[in-house]
Amino acid sequence: xxxxxxxxxxxxxxxxxxxxxxxxxxxxxxxxxxxxxxxxxxxxxxxxxxxxxxxxxxxxxxxxxxxxxxxxxxxxxxxxxxxxxxxxxxxxxxxxxxxxxxxxxxxxxxxxxxxxxxxxxxxxxxxxxxxxxxxxxxxxxxxxxxxxxxxxxxxxxxxxxxxxxxxxxxxxxxxxxxxxxxxxxxxxxxxxxxxxxxxxxxxxxxxxxxxxxxxxxxxxxxxxxxxxxxxxxxxxxxxxxxxxxxxxxxxxxxxxxxxxxxxxxxxxxxxxxxxxxxxxxxxxxxxxxxxxxxxxxxxxxxxxxxxxxxxxxxxxxxxxxxxxxx
Length: 326
Ligand SMILES: Nc1nc2c(c(=O)[nH]1)N[C@H]1C(S)=C(S)[C@@H](COP(=O)(O)O)O[C@H]1N2
Ligand SMILES: [Mo]
Prior knowledge:
The chain is an alpha+beta fold.
């Protein structure tokens, strides 16, 4: 389907295929004794991939079947990088703030209210969310509007499963995600950078695209708090800010929702926010990106791909001027 092999890519195993920690550790110490030059490229690649994944404790483990139709071949970002370089402004605007402060957020019990233009409104707790559809592991690129990207093995299922269950009415044209805004737990809430709570939204047909992922975990475990525990969306063909973290309400609407970044700077952040190397941000180019973990002095930037490489979403935008609807 849409995901083509990256010519620079390495063919990766999924978290579930990865050897247990003990085996991995002993193998690594053996490898350390060899000179790097003596290693075959394949062994190095294998080692790098293993190092990208976490070693979750049993309580954090989340089992999911790899879905090979949704797997980019780029090397996953190291777990360490994906969990220490974050945007989650409720905890502060520095990349290191979410890792430092989000640990205190209480993620259980948690409920998501599903309401608005639907026939079957309901409130889902975490257990209901986990059981709503089979969990899949999907390796997606995530491209931040700021010009960096990561590759993350997410765990979840297509958001369309939830949409189908609640039976949207004929009036439902959009879907709005509202996320937690609790001053007591979140030191960034109250800062004037954004209007709180953080709200995002999609057109209903976008939300129904199978790529749009309702996400409960990553790297074989439940979501770390800084990555949007316990439930977020990941919309990989759009800039990262569309992928709202720590969702508490999903509302179906007739009108286009007002969204946090669009409210704060409408000229800079549109409602659609599709990754598009041809439409620059007013203050910088979007033609290329820095892959987190590859930022050596001599490392070349990567070319940003239309729709972040997820070209089969193009049919959602037939006839639309994507410079106007940026
Ligand atoms: N609630 C909430 N969700 C959010 C944000 C935020 O500040 N608050 N930041 C967004 C931005 S700008 C990006 S790039 C991604 C980052 O996701 P990650 O930290 O898991 O890589 O989360 C998005 N979701
Ligand atoms: Mo972002």
